[in-house]
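[recover] target loaded
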């Protein structure tokens, strides 16, 4: 069994345990893609009710982050993500997925690109949320917490992300990558 297969099997087992524990009860009955606001409200409710507390996180291959799949179905997925010093996603979009997230522990800095200027930055503390459509480009970075934690809801499930980087000539480019691959600044 390959590393990806073993990891996927662990995610499914962990997912089933959490469904029995109550997260599924918070998911709205739906047969459609959730709106950004619905994603945000669901992430905030899971944080408010502490349903992320005590969840065991699986380290990424780089060992710089850890994550846990809290819930998934054909229309959405929910993740608990960890953030450690010097960790940054780099600027990215969410492909075709809407997103809502909520800070559960520590603080994060969210940056947004600005035309002809430095990126705008917002510090997000416990309970702070964001809702965004698939056209939203941002960067999330650790600020405080050992680790900082956040709950993210994607609808439909995050299949592809766009990672933005400058090429050797200084031109900003978008590279497609799988939604479950780790995002990095560099």
């Amino acid at each position: 069994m390959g590393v990806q297969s073993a990891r996927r099997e662990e995610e499914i087992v962990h997912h089933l345990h959490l469904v029995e524990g109550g997260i599924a009860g918070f998911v709205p009955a739906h047969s459609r893609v959730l709106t950004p606001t619905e994603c945000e409200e669901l992430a905030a409710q899971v944080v408010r009710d502490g349903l992320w507390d005590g969840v065991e996180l699986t380290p990424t291959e780089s060992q710089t982050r850890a994550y846990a799949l809290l819930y998934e179905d054909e229309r959405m997925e929910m993740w608990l993500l960890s953030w450690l010093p010097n960790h940054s996603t780099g600027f990215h979009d969410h492909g075709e997925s809407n997103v809502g997230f909520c800070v559960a522990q520590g603080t994060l800095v969210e940056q947004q690109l600005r035309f002809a200027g430095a990126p705008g930055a917002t510090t997000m503390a416990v309970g702070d949320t964001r809702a965004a459509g698939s056209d939203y480009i941002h960067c999330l970075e650790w600020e405080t917490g050992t680790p900082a934690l956040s709950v993210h809801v994607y609808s439909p499930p995050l299949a592809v992300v766009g990672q933005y980087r400058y090429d050797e000539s200084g031109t900003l480019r978008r590279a497609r990558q799988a939604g479950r691959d780790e995002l990095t600044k560099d």
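[recover] notes: The helical segments are 3-21, 36-48.
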